[in-house]
Design goal:
three-stranded antiparallel beta sheet, Globin-like, Beta-lactamase, five-stranded antiparallel beta sheet, 37 helices, 5 domains, 807 residues, mainly alpha
Length: 807
């Protein structure tokens, strides 16, 4: 018996000279080509039998419109129908919504009246719950997926030390207070292996941070590889013994010139330390940008900039000239000309901003406030409950600076003469030598003393490179401390501070430093330099020997080397240089990004994307892990226009891993017009050798996955034995047997490169053994051809144990 909707549909269809069944068949015939070509859905139809799909859909629609629950299909049938799409191609709830959207648009094109269309829509929407149940059946929870990825041999047990090592490699430390509960749980576990339930229990409230670490979602995903490169750079820079330490302040002259410390803290709290990173040193002028921030947080930017400007001075940092500036007089609308320091990074401006900090409070309160604010920047808790100490104050350093700081004393009085130095009106005190006609008490202006005393004291604060890096990371993080998650500065304060620091932070070398390094930085004559990579990390380098500009010689060289190695310059975004790695992405993904877009575009005949990449100066000759280039893929898939475009761009045919040139891809694919194109240009070179023992042997299916870059990243990781990278990708939900444009999988690459650890990990996590690439080669074929004996023997053992299990 038909339901009400079917009856209404029948009535409408009869009025159109048709029937309900005929209408359903017609709408499915029109709907499927639209869905199969929709960019959001096309991957789910690749290799599918559209005629069979249409028959199933017609039966489903007839049942659904007749009032049958789930269209007459059982839940088990629906689950099985969608299983491979969910597991292999990443089918999600949102894709159901896209299907419904296209179906409803098809109805509108067929002039189905609104009332009837709404009834059909109301029958489709509840089916989403049935679909969602299929998703939940085959999609594990986040914690279970993490455990599965970490369990290297997939035996259901994770050694506790392995878990600790993985966290450490990610840059997280046991001293991180965000992980204190987790490590306490591990300590109580007593070294026993973790099963999945125990793993979930132990990570507790730190689950999200752990997930980010394991999925490669922290600020620097490949932290271990990144820091290994830093180790190398540090060792090379340590040979630099140029420069001379500051000697005009006795305590600085007594410092050991050979000390060298380096530290990085990311916005996610990843920490790296090298050399003398835990040694206290005098921050000196590195206090300037922070004093500027403290003043702005207290008084606001407008008030602070009535007292100090934002312009580079073009003069030495201790120059006594001031900048003339017009300020509007709010009382009568006129402007008045006043003199103020050029910016907060020169001494005059730094003395002024120090004077603005808690100006009405006693000196002791003001210094305590500055030290406590520094404490918040470096992760010290306000209630003193943590292990981070208050920044140290070197009283003797402050006294020596006071005693020898003649130029700064002169600047203090020069600032007082402007009338802008914070002060209370005073009158001359009674004459203490009234009875002596030849003597009088020499008077000092209290406002000048108050400004200079706090300025000298903030210069005399001592911190380690690791602590300064944490403060820089707080600034990098928009004013929020990475480890405490406490907001110390407002975002607007940070933006203003970074702008001025970028222009003026490196003494007389500021312009050259930003031109070459492109990062906001501040140095101090104590040998410290801190750099801020916005939204990524803070860096501190400590080495007492100074160059001619008064900046740490090793500090400047270290900064230059970082920019040469990594894409960290503020304007690297306009570059397409593939030689320097971007630490924000995993190394395997970085390599994938450099090649995969062009390769996938060539394989699909997407010439517009290739035109864009050429205009952006990407190297279209660049190959992947197999040496496969865009020209190989365009030839293999028969895209003559793409091959012509590449040749016109000056791209030369290159051999792939097997010695094969693009002409052979065209020949093997039966694309005679492409073969002729190469022959006309006399580019008929070479032939590849693909060892395939049994082309018609057992065959497993690889997975087609929707994220092209993730697939290439997976294969790069396998080719380089990057088991951590494989863990990360599996934790993200990438199928272990995802295939690229040549139907190559991670196991093909790991076998070809002889990466036994990666091979074992992939097999343990369910990678099929008999997957075949474009040339019908299996991973075992690859291992045999490349003479990877240990891998070949292992695969033979696994094949023997698996028997003839093929799916």
């Amino acid at each position: 018996m038909n339901g009400p909707l079917y009856e209404n549909l029948e009535s409408w269809a009869v009025a159109q000279g048709s029937s309900a069944d005929a209408f359903i068949q017609e709408v499915i015939e029109k709907f499927y080509p639209k869905a199969a070509n929709d960019p959001r859905l096309y991957r789910f139809f690749e290799d599918a039998n559209l005629d069979a799909l249409k028959r199933h859909q017609i039966a489903f629609m007839r049942g659904l419109f007749s009032g049958k629950e789930a269209g007459g299909f059982t839940s088990q049938q629906i689950h099985e129908i969608h299983k491979r799409l969910i597991l292999d191609k990443g089918l999600k709830d949102i894709h159901f919504d896209y299907f419904v959207e296209i179906f409803m648009n098809t109805l509108r094109e067929m002039d189905v009246k609104n009332v009837l269309a709404s009834q059909i829509h109301d029958h489709l929407v509840p089916f989403r719950e049935v679909f969602a149940k299929a998703l939940s059946l085959y999609t594990t929870g986040r914690e279970e997926r993490l455990f599965y990825a970490l369990d290297e041999d997939a035996d259901g047990l994770l050694p506790e030390q392995n878990f600790r090592d993985i966290l450490q490699k990610s840059g997280l430390s046991e001293s991180d207070e965000r992980l204190s509960e987790l490590f306490s749980n591990l300590d109580r576990n007593g070294g026993a292996q973790l099963d999945c339930d125990k793993f979930i229990e132990i990570i507790g409230t730190a689950g999200l941070l752990v997930e980010q670490a394991l999925r490669g979602e922290l600020a620097i995903p490949d932290f271990r590889e990144f820091t290994e490169n830093i180790d190398r750079i540090f060792d090379e820079v340590s040979k630099n013994v140029s420069g001379k330490q500051a000697d005009y302040i006795p305590p600085l002259a007594e410092a050991n010139p050979d000390k060298f410390g380096f530290a990085i803290v990311t916005v996610d709290g990843q920490i790296y330390k090298k050399g003398d990173a835990n040694l206290d040193f005098s921050i000196q002028s590195m206090c300037k940008p922070l004093n500027y921030c403290f003043a702005m947080e207290e008084l606001g930017a407008d008030e602070v900039h009535r007292h100090v400007g934002t312009e580079p001075s073009g003069r030495a940092f201790n120059n006594r000239d001031l900048m003339a500036r017009l300020f509007s007089n709010r009382a009568d609308g006129e402007a008045e000309k006043v003199e103020i320091p050029f910016n907060p990074m020169i001494n005059a401006g730094a003395i002024m901003t120090a004077a603005l900090v808690k100006s009405k409070e006693p000196y002791e309160v003001r210094l305590r406030h500055v030290r406590e604010e520094w404490g918040r920047l470096i992760g010290r808790k306000v209630d003193d409950s943590g292990s981070i100490p208050l920044p140290r104050f070197n009283k003797e350093m402050a006294r020596q600076e006071n005693y020898t700081g003649y130029n700064n004393l002169a600047l203090g009085y020069l600032l007082m003469a402007t009338g802008l130095l914070p002060h209370e009106p005073t009158s001359i005190p009674p004459d203490t030598h009234a009875s002596d006609p030849d003597n009088y008490e020499f008077l000092f202006e209290p406002a000048v003393v108050n400004a200079l005393k706090l300025y000298f004291s903030t210069c005399a604060i001592e911190l380690t490179a690791a602590e300064v890096a944490m403060a820089a990371a707080t600034i990098s993080n928009g004013g929020v401390c990475p480890t405490t998650q406490e907001r110390v500065f407002q975002q607007s304060t940070v933006r203003r501070c970074l702008s001025v620091t970028q222009m003026c932070g490196m003494y007389d070398g500021s312009g050259d430093f930003f031109y070459n390094i492109g990062l906001p930085a501040k140095s101090g004559v104590g040998g410290g330099v801190f750099l801020v990579v916005p939204k990524l990390m803070g860096i501190c380098i400590f080495s007492p020997r100074l160059d001619e500009q008064g900046n740490s010689a090793r500090g400047v060289e270290m900064a230059k080397r970082l920019i040469e190695e990594f894409r960290l310059h503020a304007y690297d975004g306009v570059m397409t240089d593939g030689k320097r790695v971007d630490p924000r992405v995993p190394v395997a993904r970085w390599r994938a990004v450099q090649s995969s877009e062009a390769l996938w575009a060539a394989s699909k005949g997407d010439i517009r994307t290739l035109q864009r990449l050429h205009a952006e100066q990407y190297n279209l000759e660049s190959g992947d892990y197999d040496g496969r280039t865009p020209m190989h893929l365009a030839s293999a898939e028969g895209h003559r226009d793409v091959v012509e475009f590449l040749l016109e761009c000056g791209v030369s045919p290159k051999p792939d891993r097997w010695g094969g040139y693009p002409i052979e891809d065209g020949r093997n694919g039966g694309h005679h017009e492409i073969v002729e194109l190469f022959e006309e240009r006399q580019l008929d070179k070479g032939s590849r050798e693909h060892l395939v023992e049994n082309r018609e042997g057992l065959t497993n299916r690889g997975a087609k996955f929707g994220d092209d870059i993730a697939i290439v990243e997976l294969l790069w990781a396998a080719s380089e034995n990057d088991v951590s990278g494989l863990m990360r990708l599996l934790a993200q939900g990438v199928p272990v047997h995802a295939m690229d444009y040549d139907d190559r999988t991670a196991l093909h690459l790991a076998a070809a490169e002889g990466q036994l650890e990666a091979v074992k990990y992939l097999v343990a996590h369910g990678h099929p053994l008999h997957v075949r690439d474009r040339w019908r080669a299996t991973p075992l074929d690859e291992a045999i051809r490349e003479k990877r004996d240990s891998v070949a023997n292992y695969l033979r053992e696994q094949i023997a144990q698996a028997g003839a299990d093929v799916s």
